[in-house]
Amino acid sequence: MTEVTFTHVGGPTLLVEFEGLRLLTDPTFDAPGRRYDFGWGTSSTKVAGPALTPEEIGPVDAVLLSHDHHDDNLDAAGRAFLKDVPLVITTHSGAARIGGTGLRPGESTRLNDVTITATPCRHGPPLSHPIVGDVIGFALEWPGQTHGPLWITGDTVLYAPLRETARRLRPGTVVLHLGGVRFPITGPLRYTMTGRDAVTLLGDMAPANVFAVHWEGWSHFLDGREGIVQAQLPLTWFPMGEGLTAEV
C-alpha cells in the first residue's frame, strides 16, 4: 500500500508526495491579470493566482513537465522555479530547449524505484501538431501500489491513442487535464478534454481514484467546475492549496 498526498496549486500545477519523493507537475506561479499570447491568433488571460508560492512548496525532487511552450503549463515564474530543480522530465523537443530528460510517448526513465513513462497526448484537433507542438502525459509505477499505476494525462483531447493507453495501462489513479480549451479564432475546436470526454475515457478503465486539474484559473478554460459536475464525472475534487491523501 502506498499513500500519496496531492496538493493542487492551481491550473495544471500539482504537488505529488509519496515515499519520500516530492514531484511537481507543470509549474505555474505567475500572478493573475496578464494576457499571454499562445501564437496563431490565440491568447488567454490568467484569472487566478497560485494557491501556494514556490517558497511555500519548497524543494522538489523532480518536475514532470507535459510541455514547455505554453504559458499556462510553464510561465515565467515556473521557469525560474526550474533553475533549482535537480530533474526535469518533459518532451524530447522540450528537453532540447530547456534541458532535462526528454521522453517520447512510450519511453521511460527511473527516479529511485519509480518508473516514469511518457504517454501520448494530442493537444488539439486532428492535424494540429505542427501548431500545438509536442505534449506528453505521465504514468508512474512503483512497487507496492495498491490499485495500479498513477496516470497524469497531460493536456490532450480525447482520441484513439489516449483511449488505448487507458485500456492498456489500467491505472488505479488518474489525474485528468480538463478545461475544454477553446479560442475564439478557432471556433468550436477544442484543445483539451471536457467533462463529458473524461466520462467517455473513464469507460475504458476502472480507476479507484479520479482527480482533475487544468480546469480553472485561465480564460480559455471553457468547461469548468459547473460543466464537469453536469457531466457527472465521478471525481474527487482537490481542495486548493491543501493536501489530499489517497491510497494509490
- Helix residue percentage: 10-25%
Summed up, the domain count is 1
Strand-pairing-aware structural class: alpha/beta
Helix count, DSSP H or I runs of 4 or more residues: 7
CA(first)-CA(last) distance: 7 Å
Task: Characterise the protein shown here.
This is MBL fold metallo-hydrolase. It is a single chain. The protein has 248 residues and is of the alpha/beta class. The chain has a single domain (3-239), classed as 4-Layer Sandwich (Metallo-beta-lactamase, Chain A). It contains seven helices and 15 strands. The protein has helices at residues 54-57, 76-82, 92-98, 129-132, 160-169, 195-202, 225-230, and strands at residues 3-10, 13-18, 21-25, 35-39, 42-45, 62-64, 88-91, 101-103, 108-111, 114-120, 136-141, 150-152, 173-177, 209-213, 243-247. Strands 8-7-6-3-2-1-15 form a seven-stranded mixed sheet. A six-stranded mixed sheet has the order 9-10-11-12-13-14, covered by helices on one side. It starts with a strand and ends with a strand. The relative contact order is 0.17.
